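explain this:

___
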Amino acid sequence: MIKNILDELYDYDLFHLTEIEDMDGSYKIALDRLVKAEAGLRRAYPDSTDILDEYQSADIDLHNLSNRNEFRKGFKVGAQLVLEMIKPIK
């Protein structure tokens, strides 16, 4: 995959974009739900660890792609706002 400047910025993590700010605890609550559900699935289907691992890996890949896309869009919107702000007032 050919990377553009936004991909390079995202991958470099210049602004520590991968750190989660969990000010109200909602991230921890959601993560705890996920961990509990995964543990329940592994207990209920102990012979299905391979398919559960593959599902988890595919889900992580999908989230990573989604996060990158949202970063790109947000960065572009921010840049467009800056360009609009520097236009002279009529």
About this structure: Residues 5-85 form one domain. The chain has three helices and no strands.
